[in-house]
């Protein structure tokens, strides 16, 4: 994390996976970085909840399938606790189109990564999610969201969308289509900072925990529909 008026500070990461070798590999990679500290490990969802409450990490790398309490239930326990509002959860999955990934994002996870993600991408991911970006493996985002949005319930009218300006609706739709702030800026011919400001204001108005939830809201409200993605 970075202090507003100070130097860069260490990003505190917790690991939750029932496979010891997976945790060891992630720990070795993360601990070698000067700006990242691994503050603890958990072998199941219940241990993960206890660890997060005790250590208050910035990011939790959470496996979906774990004994005792699975990653989805553990994630809901974290994101549903107001005292843990600053903790970001990144789900780990073996398969790109894991059937639980979309539900994980709806549960409040900031995104997901496949376990065979390249080391550099994992490091970028940890740093990005702390900065408030939605985290989805490159090349998977659009087709995954389309896949699971198509299986989700029919969109219901969202009264909260009435509070958005026309530009904010437009920006929200582009976020829902998987565009980054830079891509949104190019599409709308505005600066990246302006695009980021529109995204932030939209999240505040809708009470979205992070960018990933904004994507889900875009689909659930019908602002974006499956099949619109290129």
From TrEMBL:
Keywords linked to the UniProt accession: DNA-binding, Phosphoprotein, Transcription, Transcription regulation
Residue ranges of domain Response regulatory in the record: 12-130
SMART domains (alphabetical): HTH_LUXR, REC
Pfam families, alphabetized: GerE (PF00196), Response_reg (PF00072)
Residue ranges constituting the HTH luxR-type domain according to the UniProt record: 157-222
Presence of the UniProt keyword Phosphoprotein in the record: yes
Protein name: DNA-binding response regulator
Annotated organism of origin: Streptomyces violaceusniger
């Amino acid at each position: 994390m970075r202090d507003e008026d100070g130097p860069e500070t260490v990003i505190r990461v917790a690991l939750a996976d029932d496979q010891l070798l997976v945790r060891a590999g992630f720990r070795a990679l993360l601990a070698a970085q000067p700006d990242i500290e691994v503050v603890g490990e958990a072998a199941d969802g219940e241990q993960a909840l206890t660890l997060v409450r005790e250590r208050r990490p910035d990011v939790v790398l959470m496996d979906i399938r774990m004994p005792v309490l699975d990653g989805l239930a553990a994630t809901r326990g974290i994101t549903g606790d107001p005292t843990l509002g600053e903790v970001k959860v990144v789900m780990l999955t073996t398969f790109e189109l894991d059937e639980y990934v979309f539900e994980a994002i709806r549960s409040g996870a900031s995104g997901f990564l496949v376990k065979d993600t390249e080391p550099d991408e994992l490091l970028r991911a940890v740093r990005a999610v702390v900065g408030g970006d939605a985290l989805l493996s490159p090349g998977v985002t659009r087709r995954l969201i389309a896949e699971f949005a198509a299986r989700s319930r029919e969109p219901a009218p969202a009264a909260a969308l009435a509070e958005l300006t026309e530009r904010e609706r437009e920006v929200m739709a582009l976020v829902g289509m998987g565009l980054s702030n830079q891509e949104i800026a190019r599409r709308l011919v505005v600066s990246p900072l302006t695009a980021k400001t529109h995204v932030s204001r939209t999240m505040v108005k809708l009470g979205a925990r992070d960018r990933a939830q904004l994507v889900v809201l875009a689909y659930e409200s019908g602002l974006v529909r499956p099949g619109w993605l290129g």
